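hey so u asked for the seq, here:
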Amino acid sequence: MKKTSLRSYIRAQKKQHSAAELAAMSEEITNRVRASAWWQEAGILLLYYPLADEVDVRPLIREAYREGKRVLLPVCKGDDLELRLYEGEASLAPGAFGIMEPTGQLFARDSYPDVQLALVPGMAFDRAGHRLGRGKGYYDRLLPRLAHARLQGICFPFQLLDSVPAEPHDIPVHEVTCGISPCV
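ran it, structure tokens below
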């Protein structure tokens, strides 16, 4: 399938599930993340503030922050993502595309190698770790800068496909957590 058709297919799959079903799947997925050694050992994490149709990782954001981990969230700046420190719910404001973004301290690009774990959203993933994004290329530009981080794709079970289109420059994630066992 072409990328555009695949995105439409995934959007249709999401609409087949109620908000309660997506919330239950999100809870199972976040529980799996929470149980992983990578999560438990990471002191600097890149998470994402979810859109309504993405796996809800907000409980992980709050938990990591309470535990004293350094939580980073992406902020859209033009065609790029910059990383800012999450400093509690009060530090969030609506940003590009209606996504809540932190207004806290900028995380310097020369510190990106310090990020230990990055949870990466996507429209779809395959078992080789290839990711299909929403089409703007934000994560395609960000992931090469996170060469030292463990990249963990996060998706609902129906978003894990046999294959997704991949370009030679695409950076695959190391694993995908999707709420089913085994995932990738």
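The mean pLDDT is 92. The helical segments are 3-15, 19-35, 37-41, 58-66, 138-142.
lmk if thats what u needed
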